[in-house]
Amino acid sequence: MLADGAVLRALERVSGRSWSAPIRVLAETGSTNDDAKALAREGAPQATLVVADAQTAGRGRSGARWHSPAGENLYLSLVLRPSIAAAAVAPFTLVAGLVVAGAVDERTSRAALVKWPNDVHVDGKKVSGILVEGQVRGDTLSSIVVGLGVNVTTTSFPPPLDMTATSLAMLGARDRDRASLAAAIAVGLVDAVERFAREGLAPFARELAARDALIGRRVRVGDVEGLAMGIDAEGRLLVSTDADGTTPIVAGHVELVG
């Protein structure tokens, strides 16, 4: 099981500084995002971290259930308090994807890609899912919670996930230490959100283009079908259709066509 001390030591090693924000490491919880949102409402500071060994009600975007077996994978949620508009939550999800992709790269010999809007894929299979939820107080975004799951040591998934999911173990990663992975992602997210609050999506655009899992693929999002042409400066998926030219997609579930 993950231990508070191991996570703290990893955070301080990766960041090169003392880590003063609260850390909660749980044997089991319903959802780390729900826990982190409750802490945020109570005033938890920037970089408050919740990690669980197992989740009973882990979820992704649109409430999709996240496969969360005990002791095998990383289930993490981080409280952040950037000065950004509520509309910036969606594009920051892509930045979070870049942070996770970088951590996966460091542990495997394969390039991790970001599948718009909130997944990380390797070799066409999902290794991580991300859920970013904003908490609004009045007209102000008071906090965001970045929740994610990374498949680490799982080597067998139930149907139909066995056709679409992968893990660090299945990708041949030798470093499968969940505490160091949690630290790499948490520190990366804190650094990234500070830059995002200052400069927006622009400084991440080149890496996002290089890691775009959908570029050049035929996709369907709702009733829009066409060729994925990249991601614009606002984090929207650009889809070129025969009838309407290029359509920017703000949100939705992407299906690959053909």
Topology:
Layout: H1 4-15, E1 23-26, H2 32-41, E2 49-52, E3 74-80, H3 89-107, E4 113-115, E5 119-122, E6 125-137, E7 140-150, H4 178-199, H5 205-210, E8 218-221, E9 224-231, E10 237-241, E11 245-249, E12 254-256
Parallel strand pairs: 1-2
Antiparallel strand pairs: 2-3, 3-7, 4-5, 5-6, 6-7, 8-9, 8-12, 9-10, 10-11
Helix pairs in contact: 1-4, 3-4
Structure at a glance:
The chain has helices at residues 4-15, 32-41, 89-107, 178-199, 205-210; strands spanning 23-26, 49-52, 74-80, 113-115, 119-122, 125-137, 140-150, 218-221, 224-231, 237-241, 245-249, 254-256. The chain has 258 residues and is an alpha+beta fold. It folds into two domains: 4-210, BirA Bifunctional Protein, domain 2 (2-Layer Sandwich), CATH 3.30.930; 218-256, Roll (SH3 type barrels), CATH 2.30.30.
Question: Top keywords for this entry?
Answer:
single chain, 258 residues, alpha+beta, BirA Bifunctional Protein, domain 2, SH3 type barrels, 2 domains, seven-stranded mixed β-sheet, five-stranded antiparallel β-sheet, 5 helices, 27% helix, globular
